[in-house]
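Case 349 in the screening queue. Each case pairs one protein sequence with one candidate compound; here the compound is zinc ion. For every case the pipeline is the same: read the inputs, emit a complex structure as tokens, and attach any notable structural observations.

Predict complex for case 349.
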Amino acid sequence: MASSQAPPPPSRTIALYQKDGTLHTHNTTISSISPLSTLAPETQALFKKSDKDADDNNNNNNTREYLVVVVSAETIFHAQGGGQPTDTGIMTISSPENENENENENAQVTEKPVFYVQSVRASPPSILHLGIFKGSPSSSSSSSSRFTPGVHVTQTIDVGPRLLHSRLHTAGHALSIAVMSLTQPSSSSSSSSSSSSSSKPAVVLPSDLKEGKASHFPSAASIEFHGLIPGTAKQAIQEAVDALIARDLAISIHFVDEAEALRRCGPVAEGVKGDVNAEGEGKGDVRLVEIEGAGAYPCGGTHVRTLKDVGRVVVKGIKRQKGVSKSHMFGIVRGLTLSMIEQGETYNA
Ligand SMILES: [Zn+2]
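Case 349 output:
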């Protein structure tokens, strides 16, 4: 798309959250800062698509004119995408701007600006942080003027939502693996009749079932499959996912070439292109998440370290709907309930 305005040269943001999902605070530098309203329409539109995750303030007319977009050299903020919501948090200036600040404990004059990150989107090669400065409109503009390119800032994400999103996201992969495991012939009970002290469930799902889109949003966590999943499979899916979580497998991240991605992931990696934005060092690698020994997926999101960190995944239901232009049915396994046992907390997705 041609824009009539002269766009600033896009600066690359290294997505640190894709290398190390445990970073909750990090120092980096500002690459650019722009009022949202001055950005190209297609860039502004990135933030309009789905703001259901963000604060209502985001679209509030009273604040909208003060919304600015900050680009940094690196980021630990997850950019919304791949079914996972945006991270939120703050950025503050970390380098001493002047000598006075060090000694002046109750300095009103040099109060450091706090930039509240409300919504993050990828606009390759940049990652855009939409937000607002704390304080009055006048202080907002002076804050804004201190967030200049080259300034060192400390990023801090809201850890609670990040952890929830990582759990829901990992639960999505676990659920997908569990469902697909029910399309495979069970190795133990081959022939006739009952028996079965084996914990392996029988095949209950069609062998041509394919994994589709996933949502890891708290209110809509679900995985779509192309193919028919009967409602009666719910219990078998629940047992399969319980058994998988109980194995407490480690979750790891790998950057591999496209051929290797296909080898490790199978059909879900078909057509997946190496993403130069994924890692920032220009190898064009595909980022994979691997649940040790159980399966791997091309994925740009954040995850927990082992399956036990997910908590209990509850299969809430199976919804079936016709594909738009296909005779295929979509089986949507939806609604995960996660329980963190050690905290006695139950999250109803
Ligand atoms: Zn993932």
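Case 349 observations:
- The chain has a mean pLDDT of 79.
- Residues 159-181 form the longest helix (23 residues).
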